[in-house]
Structures are given as structure tokens and as C-alpha cells.
Design goal:
alpha/beta, globular, seven-stranded parallel sheet
Length: 200
């Protein structure tokens, strides 16, 4: 069985490259960055200086946190890469970016964002479901932003297309400390619980 994450060192956070219309989004990004730094948890993120990504990284660094950014060369050349990170890793593809972030992190958190945010989080979540890695996944639900998504997941479970035990892999909180506490306490039940022999 893969190791459980009772002691996390780094958290990958997926979030928007825009600030969004609600000031609560940026406030939550600041609070999460500060909380990660206070708890001595390194931040792994997409390496940008724009939108919620930049707000998150700035908050972590302003409070003495370690920040590891991963960005594609194409985006770095568009001058959206954050210049002041602890470490900036430049990769060639988006696939490589996601893989590198997953390797560098012990858990995953999703803040408000768009297509890219959802893609990154659900790929990491699927890898946990399939036993590719044993890493917990959480959603910081800011101002009800993710309520429609969570309703969809509940509906998918009720429709028989998402097992209840798989649905429970998505931990949801509105407070950064509460979410991090749950990520720390999470224990991997092992891949055998998730897949039947026909599904492997």
C-alpha cells in the first residue's frame, strides 16, 4: 500500500490566472498563502505572477513561505512567470507541468479558477482514485463558487456513475486551516478498494 500523508511538506494549489469578480477570491488566496507559510508547508503552483496565482504566491512569500513554481516555456516567454519565487521550474509542455507539480506535492488544493484549474485538479484527483499516487485532494469553497460543481458530483454519484467512496475523495472546506487539517489526517485506503479486477 502506498504511504499515507500524515505529515505533509508541500501542497500543490490550482487556481485562476485572473482575479475574478468577487474580492473574496483574492482574500481566500491570501489567507491560504499565509496559512501555508505559517504551517511551514511549501507551496507548489503554476508559476505565474498574474491573477489569483500571483496573489497566492505573494502571500506565501511575504510570510516566509517556500514557493516552487512550475510553468511552461511558452508562458514564461510571455512574461507571466513570477520573478521572485524560491524556485521556478520551466518545462516544455502542459502535460509536463502537471506531472512535475504532482511529483513535487504531497496533496492538492483547488481555489476558484477556470478550465485549467479544473483540469489540473481533476487529473490529480483521478490519479488518487486510480492509485497512481496516494495524495489527498481538497477544495477550498470560496463564497459558494464551487457549489454547482459539488452538486454535479453528488448527482453523478446518485446516477451511479461515480461511486460514493470516490465522491468522498473530494474534501471540501471553507476555511484554509480546516482543509489543511483534513488533508493531514487523510489516510489512503489503497488502490484495491477503488478498482475491481475488470476495471484495472
Amino acid at each position: 500500500m502506498p504511504p499515507t500523508n500524515t505529515s505533509l511538506r508541500s501542497i500543490a494549489v490550482f487556481c485562476g490566472s485572473a482575479h475574478g469578480a468577487d474580492p473574496a477570491f483574492a482574500e481566500a488566496a491570501v489567507a491560504l498563502g499565509e496559512t501555508l507559510a505559517r504551517r511551514d508547508l511549501g507551496l507548489v503552483y503554476g508559476g505565474g505572477q498574474v491573477g489569483l496565482m500571483g496573489v497566492l504566491a505573494d502571500a506565501a512569500m511575504a510570510n516566509g513561505g517556500r514557493v516552487h513554481g512550475v510553468i511552461t516555456r511558452a508562458l514564461a516567454e510571455l512574461e507571466v512567470a513570477h520573478p521572485g519565487l524560491t524556485e521556478l521550474e520551466v518545462v516544455e509542455t502542459m502535460h509536463g507541468r502537471k506531472a512535475s507539480m504532482a511529483d513535487a506535492a504531497d496533496a492538492f488544493v483547488m481555489l476558484p479558477g477556470g478550465f485549467g484549474t479544473l483540469d489540473e485538479f481533476f487529473e490529480a484527483l483521478t490519479w488518487t482514485q486510480l492509485g497512481v499516487h496516494a495524495k489527498p485532494c481538497g477544495v477550498l469553497d470560496v463564497a459558494g463558487y464551487f457549489a454547482p460543481l459539488l452538486d454535479f458530483l453528488d448527482g453523478a454519484s446518485e446516477a451511479g456513475l461515480l461511486r460514493p467512496e470516490h465522491r468522498s475523495l473530494v474534501m471540501i472546506e471553507r476555511d484554509a486551516d480546516a482543509l489543511l487539517d483534513r488533508l493531514v489526517a487523510w489516510e489512503d485506503p489503497g488502490v484495491d478498494r477503488w478498482l475491481t479486477p475488470d476495471e484495472r
